[in-house]
Amino acid sequence: MSRKMKNKVVTNLTIERIATEGKCVGHHEGKVVFVQGVAPGDVVDVRITRGKSSFMEGEAIKFHEYSKDRIDPFCSHFGTCGGCKWQHINYDLQKTYKRQQVVDQFTRIGKVEIPEVMPIVGSANTRYYRNKLDFTFSNNRWLTREEIDSGAAFERNALGFHIPKMFDKIVDIEHCYLQGDISNEVRNELRAFALSNSLSFYDIRNQVGLLRNLIIRTTSTGESMVIVQFGGDNAEEIELVMNFLHEKFPQITALLYIINLKKNETFNDLEVVTFAGRSYIEEEMEGLKFRIGPKSFYQTNSEQAYELYKVTRDFAGMKGDEVVYDLYTGTGTIANFVAKQAKQVIGIEYVEAAIEDAKLNSKVNGLENTLFYAGDMKDMLNDDFIAAHAKPDVIITDPPRAGMHDDVVNMLLKLAAPKIVYVSCNPATQARDVALLSEKYSVDKIQPVDMFPQTYHVENVVLLTLKS
Ligand SMILES: C[S@@+](CC[C@H](N)C(=O)[O-])C[C@H]1O[C@@H](n2cnc3c(N)ncnc32)[C@H](O)[C@@H]1O
């Protein structure tokens, strides 16, 4: 960016609409200006942080007018923590913007003929809707400008969330509105206990410290899993922490810990020790049980996951004699959810532990018509695989944010199943893939589902039907 452009201030910019990834846009001298943390209708001065020939990005430094659609954010950490970027926009408008994002992606990127996008399925709970949160211990608490300017000495240990784009700074969380049940209590009590016992909080720059990370998972049936990751292996101190949690919170049904002396926080390759209770928790949906281990993926908003799966099953429209492929099956939740309406369901996923859980979930629920395979989709879904299995009547696909690999899209075109139900957490890559599939498929239904209130994220389900 030219020096002239950097730090340039655009004054009195009217924010016109929401664009992708929660950013808003206005126009200045023929260029689009992207701004975070504002709402359509705001009039602001913007300091430019990035400039290209066709667009600029910046931060609002002064508000001249506030949008009439603004509401007061309810969380004291709003603006710092970065977790719920849309708390200043009322929920009805959040839903409108999310649906509009889907329309925009399909018309701008997809450029395919689409039916009217259905009204978004809103979340009954707009607070305390997550079943999993991940907190980080740090000896480098984020200090506010006022705290720094005061010159006073502050407690620097913290337990909370990363400041966006700063790997070593943590906002100390007092109350988080994302997860209910015992979440806030466990976090705050554990922090207080650690401080009063002078236990060390992790120093990420020097890779030392006892307390590293805290994961809390809950279920709609009242079960809870608490996992403490330790960055040191002092057995006495570990015992002290785990005993404290066990005595203070006897209602925790799976109390686990991990000793992680590696450089990163991932623990797929580490042993998880069960300190008290069981090694897993169990979620329920329509009487089906889903076992969730410490390493298993499970949709983080359980109630909306149910809505999402109902839409998926409805779009698949099975009568009972269909062969269904569930691509990117994770722990086989969708596969098991639709199994009673199908002749056979085949799930594919590359995390082996997830496939083990998927098989276990079929067994626990007495489902005998499912098959699960572990491997990379582009390598698994090949001619040999198809020759060895029945051809699909319905394909359900739920890839990660990056969407499907070209080879997978080409295989779907070759397979030419009568129906594809495409579930996605990223309508941009979904629209790209649907454009490729439109060579043989028409888009029949588009149903956005809101899994993450107070954020710009939107989940979207598309029904594709083979053209005759
Ligand atoms: C959005 S999740 C879908 C999970 C599942 N459908 C559910 O609702 O619980 C995407 C899944 O794709 C898996 N995955 C990502 N890349 C993959 C690949 N190249 N091959 C196979 N699976 C992959 C991830 O491990 C993850 O479980």
UniProtKB/TrEMBL annotation:
Coiled coil: none
Domain of life of the organism encoding this protein: Bacteria
Pfam short name (any one): tRNA_U5-meth_tr
GO MF assignments: rRNA (uridine-C5-)-methyltransferase activity
Example GO BP: rRNA base methylation
Active site: C425, C425 (nucleophile)
Binding site for S-adenosyl-L-methionine: Q299, Y328, E349, D398
Ranges for domain TRAM: 3-62
Keyword tags: Methyltransferase, S-adenosyl-L-methionine, Transferase
Listed InterPro entries: MeTrfase_TrmA_AS (IPR030390), MeTrfase_TrmA_CS (IPR030391), NA-bd_OB-fold (IPR012340), SAM-dependent_MTases_sf (IPR029063), TRAM_dom (IPR002792), U5_MeTrfase_fam (IPR010280)
Similarity remark: Belongs to the class I-like SAM-binding methyltransferase superfamily. RNA M5U methyltransferase family.
NCBIfam families per the UniProt record, alphabetical: rumA
Protein name: 23S rRNA m(5)U-1939 methyltransferase
Organism expressing this protein natively: Belliella buryatensis
